[in-house]
Amino acid sequence: MIVLSVLFTIFITGCSEDSNKQEGKDESMEAGTVITPDEKSKENEKDNVEAKNNTSSPEQFDIEPLPTNVVELVALEQGEYAQEVFNNKDGAKLEGAALLDMLGEDVPEISSNPSEAELDYFYREVLKLVQDDYIGEEEILKDLKFQLLGSPELEDPRYQFKEQLNIEILLDASGSMAGEINGTTKMALAKEAITSFMEELPEQTNVALRVYGHKGTGADSDKELSCSSSEILYGFNPYKKDAFSNALDKVNPAGWTPNGLAISKAQEDLAEFNGKENTNIVYVVSDGIETCGTEPVKVAQDFYDSNIKPIINVIGFDVDNEGQNHLKEIAEAAKGIYQAARDHNELAKEFDKINELAEAWEEWKEKGSQQIDSKETQNSIDIFVYITRNVVKLREEQTSLKYIFKAFLSTDQISEKTYQGLIKRNKTYHDKMRDEMDKLEEELETWNKNSYKKALQKLENKYKENKVSN
């Protein structure tokens, strides 16, 4: 993320001197003193200087360029108020001054008569606040690759079916999992989704459940205890309903969030299952950022590079923007998939993907090969879903910005002319990004109709480039 600096020109005037001059002028006027042409000229010059101070010059602003394509768009971090402005305003909860109060000091100032450069700067800075999280070519390819697990077209050995399928769930049991979604705790919803997922798995699948952050409390006095807590409660064994339910029932949200510890322990759990004879899949289910300093990004990368050859995916369950950015880093370090789940249904859908793969593995075990003729239709649907999600986010982001600019207008902080200038920039930028999404969809459909090898090779080349640069 490029950090930009804003250059301010500060004008310091002597208040007492100006006051004395004004008082002197008033006294001379009362005494009938005539103002000379020279004095009048100086006053006009002073007024012109003050007027200029209210209009910004281009040199005052260091403006971060707007994204010009999907790659640049996806590289941006999600803004602090992404979707929050849209959700509040769309529900008629906040508008005008109340909406601006929610944003607080994060909104940059704007002069009464802004230059084009200042309008560009102001628009870019406000966009950062509501910048949404978009899915790009690389993420889509990673997900399609995961769905093609077991396909003969995949040369990566970790994505080929082996004699044994092992799946481990790492469940965040920190205190924040006590938070509620529609009146039910996140922990209860996660338990329900995980149980349903386990019940659908083929009988021969080895499964494990590891929890972390489940001891102590969120208090500083319990940090050491909580940050060192991670325990495997089930597995590795085939799923047995009663035994698994008893293990899951013991889990309650409690303390801090040692994501890195849980991932390192999962590597120990799978140490005996090398990647040559085993297909190993690990899912991290968390609702927040690492709070224990256990270096989850580094640990995930080391785990990925081990002879276990795991596929490590991360589900962010009802996470805030900071937590999402953090969890995405973990997934990227392990070349895995990050997926946000806002509620129980979205969490269940993510687990359904693993069930489909497990069923394909079971069929492979029985028949010795996997038919993938039907994959094209499924992937076409997935491509449509990805693009649609991005387009919806663009629309909501554009609307959020409109709400903010309207709030500035309704509180008399900007003029109608300034408002229209910002709206024009908003439309131009988001129309451009929608066009770029259309181009991405066309490219993905081309890959979908032809061989995946070219697209997947492009993804592998990207991995190699990143490894060299790191």
Shape: globular
Low-confidence stretches: 1-37, 45-58, 370-374
Tell me the series of helices and strands, N- to C-terminal.
Answer: HHHHHHHEEEHEHEHHEHEHEHHHH
First-last Cα distance: 16 Å
Beta content: 5-15%
Q: Biggest sheet: strands side by side, in what order?
A: 5-4-1-6-7-8
The number of helical runs is 17
Number of separate strands: 8
Outline the structure in words.
The protein has 470 residues and is an alpha/beta fold. The chain is built from 17 helices and eight strands. Helix 13 (321-333) links the parallel strand 7 (311-317) and strand 8. The longest helix has 36 residues, at 375-410. The protein starts with 14 loop residues before the first helix and ends with a helix. Residues 1-37, 45-58 and 370-374 have low confidence and may be disordered.
